[in-house]
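Issue 218. Parser rejects a valid record. Input:
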Amino acid sequence: MINKDIAVAGYIAAALLTSRHRDEFRLYGSWDIEDCSRDEIRAEVDEFLVGNATLLLTSGMNSEQIGRTFWLARNGFGMDFAKRIGHRGQELDTEAVTRGRRALVVINNKLYHHRVS
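Output the parser choked on:
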């Protein structure tokens, strides 16, 4: 069974590690994510989980790995589903990439989940 809350936490952890939101005075954390962006993240992760439930449930990955890998795959970081689970992950990678790239950006000391063109 996939735990949505843990998958969202994995997604956010990967986002925080890979987004360029640090400055010399402050290190941002999950508590800095604006509520509307947190809701958007939860909705996008949930949609990905529901739409790919069969493949994800048979992947052997835990919920945190799924969330983290969703972020990494959709943003082209090279640690994607195919590298984790083999050829079965290619369909998941395609699904992640078609959802578009995202980044966490700082606006007025809050983090926003932003579409990257």
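Fixed in the parser; the record now loads. The longest helix spans residues 35-51.
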